[in-house]
Fold these 2 entries.
Entry 1:
Amino acid sequence: MSDLIKPASIILLVIVVVSVPFLQDSVNDEAAKFVSDSESSHDGLPTQWDGKQAICIFFPESNTHPEFSTGVTMIDSDGETIGVNDALNSTGACVGGFEGHEQGMDFMMDATRVAGGLLSVGYTMDPNWGPFVHTIGGLNVDEVQGDFSGAYWSLSHNGEYSMVGIGDLIMSQGDVISWEIATW
Amino acid sequence: MLDAHAVVLSPIEALFLNLSLLCIVAWPMWIAGKSLRPGNDLAMLALLALFATSGRILLDPLPNIQPVTVVVLLVGAHYGASRSVAFASVVAISSNLVLGHGIWTLYQALAWSLVGITGSSLSRIFRNGNAISIRRVGAVAFVAGFAFDWVVSISALHSIPLESFPVYLMVGLPFDLVHATGNLVFAAWLSGPLSEIMTRQSPQSKAVVEPVKNAS
């Protein structure tokens, strides 16, 4: 019996490891249902983006973006600047008005491209954990220095800390994702 | 984790490199452990800590598959709760020197300590006559995989709100399953030999050996 358990456990492990990506997909789908309603996450965004997808990048006070250093610039999906919202208590840019995106990473790349290089994204691919975003709009996390151990680009989904990385994020209609610098 | 000088290794190649290194580490340790004089339980603990630490670091390319949980469980069963707590904390700290130290180290040390305490309280149940019951160790190690991950997940409450915690745990379930199944493999392959050498070095075996020495 105990001789059988040795090969059997290895076979089981291989089956589990191979099926993890599929399990993860279905679990992430389930998790996406728990993300709170996207309505309030549109507060402060142009009303024409209601029910549509948007991404916001917020820069820390110590490292403001050279182009978006005051208020939050609203850029439409066709690349036109709609306006600047000075009432959001942070600086940066949002790109919105998209529809039909499902994969978080694809959406992020498509949406930031609209800003014509001003919001370009740098990331590394980790074989286990997927894409790791280190640079947005020219700000690399290593450049953020202060009274803390380190900084990272932190992802929120409809205003709440995202449970999954951008590579696993499943987007629904009207979802807003945002990135800001967090420290540890 | 590993960077070869001028040679770029694919993840699979890095994994094979690490597995070979682990064999190179484990084999002499196994010989050394077997040749220790009986009653040398502290040296045994040190060898096991080196094995668990290097095993965790070298298996890092495989997500959540590492021998520490099973080794801590067995240390608890053979050497008792207090030693397993010290053992678990040392392994958590030393492996995190390479893998990354942070607030999670505290929770990993806590969670592995709980595994060790569980092992010590189940030591009678694990025993099957003179040998160890691989099936029982395997069953407990499987459950411990989930329990360990959930205790470590508490560290996420430093950055996420409490109401998101159930979803956070749910998203982690596939990784918990990998940990649990990996534990089953380590329990199946390691609990027999490790239990054998640990029993030889247990504090009790000293008492058995010494009268024999005196008699000769």
Entry 2:
Amino acid sequence: MRLNVTVNGRAEAVDDVWEGESLLYVLRERLGLPGSKNACEQGECGSCTVYLDGVPVCACLVAAGQAEGRAVRTVEGLAEGDRLDPVQEAFVEAGAVQCGFCTPGLLVQAHDLIERNPRPSDAEIREALAGNLCRCTGYEKILDAVRLAAARKAGAA
Amino acid sequence: MSVVGRPIARVEGRLKVTGAARYTADLPQDDGKDLVHAVAVCAAVAKGRITSIDARQARAAGGVLELITHHNAPRLRPVPAQEVLGPAHETLLVLQDDRVHYSGQPVAVVVADTLENATHAASLVRVEYAEERPVATLFEGIDDAFDSPRYAPPTTIGDVDRGLADAAVVIDRTYTTPAQHHHPMETMATTVRWTADEVTVHVSTQTISMVRDGLATTFGLRPEQVRVVSEFLGGGFGGKAAWCWPSVVTAMAARLTGRQVRLVTTRRQMFAATGQRPHSVQRVRLGARRDGVLTAIAQDCVGETSAFYDTPPFYIGAATPVPYGCPNIRTTQRFVKVNCQTPVPMRSPVEGVGLVSVESAMDELAAELGVDPLELRRRNYAERDPNSGLPWSSNGLLECYERGARRFGWPERNPEPRSMRDGRYLVGWGMATAIRHAGSDPTSALVRLGADGRAVVQIGSQDLGTGTFTIMTQVAADALGVPVEMMRAELGDTDLPTGGGSFGSHTAASVAAAARLAGEALRAKVIRIAVADEGSPLSGASPDDVLVDDGYLFVRGDRSRGERYAQILRRNRLQSATGDHTPPPREGATVARWAFGADFTEVKVDPELGTVRVTRHVKAIEAGRIINPRTARSQVIGGVVMGIGQALTEATEVDRRDARITNAGFWGYHVPVNADVPDIEAIFVERDDPHIPGSVKGLGEIATIGTAPAILNAVFHATGKRVRDLPITPDKLL
């Protein structure tokens, strides 16, 4: 089938898509956007989290056909040109990145949290990131990064 | 100003937060259309013979290019284990015969044009087995435990029997630790292109040189025909340190098809792809005087090895003689052949496993004697390494105890179990000692400086994600005398100067030593050029009088007489220099090099549900000098969290009837999640170590060692119940 989907603001028409393949597969293998990672392929780790019509989803659990006519935003679409989003900046500054494999999913999830809740409490941050596994950092610096990004965004607003 | 020791942000951070860092499975097919995908079919039994493989349906499925079984796989040459690949690797030559040795062993590989087609075709392969009764776990095979000649005679210091007989108190306890899996977030990925001239391998590995040598040996190639690249690595923790079957079968597929082939293991396959921390039983006997001074330590371990590996890869009691100054110590280990993969290191194969029992037994001894657990350890502080008899190269253990205890508030502890409460929760405080051998590997570096004043440092090492790119940059910038922004690091390619493996907590010490030597050599070389260059303000100066600051070279005492690297390089050619780090030989050592630490932890236990939460953790570490406190702190916190998993949530469960893993996924194998993580503090007790270049001892493993036993001890303090079987799941407390 042909899949029509807007990705990071760009309208894409992808041909020869098998209806059963995942949105993650379309992004990584067909559209050349490997930022979203495949680490469990069954919705347990959050590494493939992307926005689908503004809602964070595990791209591994979304069938390609379900994305028809919809808008996807991935980690590659968080920065505006060369200007990083405050969430991206904060992850680097706070030491919230190690191997970086879980980072793309965490960034999208944290970005969404701060959009919805500009002043999240620690409990709210932990709840929002509950579906994102990280094996390197031990999460503490990720919390620091989300707090830092929220403070910066609030300051800038 | 020196950038070593400063908490600069990781240099590859921007690539990682924009999705631009390319991991093995992300790499674009290099000429657009050539990449194809391989999927392994894994054994559904743990022991037996393959009686038939019906691949007719699979071969007929759409897009299938090749189907490899033991009937048509390239013949592989055995790899001499110790000589080529270090202490631990997969010796099973896969797809060579009809034998099955563990559940999950690859028995066929399908290659197809797309991943979806390969996955589908793999599901159509029908394999029949003549199943035999497997040895499912250590316990099933314990009657056949054997001594390995590799570890004979056992480590013996003094006279343990005498020490036990003379003791006022003897603690005699047996502990078990489960098999656990590393589960880096990136699963094992390999891409291979095989041409007549060169085999190019992109692979998620902790040791590119080992993959090169392993592939060359196995397939009968010269090492220089194989290029291995691993630039960005999604974690490893020891699981990507070993030579493992996914890379072997990908190379087979590339050779047979002539295409570039990628194989990415699934999360489920990661339970039988890269080895595991071995299941163990550890009996510990401690003898002590009334005042707590140890008279004897005896540790007798039984550990699993695979059914096909006669030389067990490591000896989990190897570090047991080190932490305490006891005159009589004996450790032994026997092995059981189990139908599982060959065990591999997981964030310290020795201290991270073998000291769990010793540190718990020390806590039991403290309770028995009525001595504070920290005080008991202080009284047994080792003035020299008891194992070798050598003085320490440096040792900050007592300061780790002191600063960790103060920060945690340890003196406030009521020694009575079940005495501390927070509402309905029982509160427990526990502590443990951590030690880890500090070593390094032979490593070469090259630093190159261009006419724009920019420099690059190259080492054929790997960055697991810990921060190797960053610390290489810092050290090389300092050594050359340029701002850190002017230095760039390259690693992860066997075309670069040879580095060692990223395991054993060796990487930081190895790359820092080599990068410093190369940077200093280049600085000296450019100074020699400048003083001989009539066009330079430095002309005629003595090289010893030329100083470098921020990329500016000048004569001592006259800052105005000088010029920048870029100006010198513009008149001269591109310059480079190499540095070769050679570790001190183990034979004839005059000092014992170790890193030290102390873990202090608080748990809260729900007395009705048996659930344990770690609520606070302080870890003090003496690992020499810290090159980058920001990356180091993050690494240590992550290590503590892996220790929480080891203590409370992680175990690979095996069905004792058929030796198949029953929790093969994140749904059943529980790595700690955000909500499991408490307030964690890392304290660095820094020491200069004149016997280690840069005083770098390494952090990767000491970050985790000590955490699990501290939690075990805290759970006893909270509940009065001693759990000696990891992990502490609620059922064990009810």
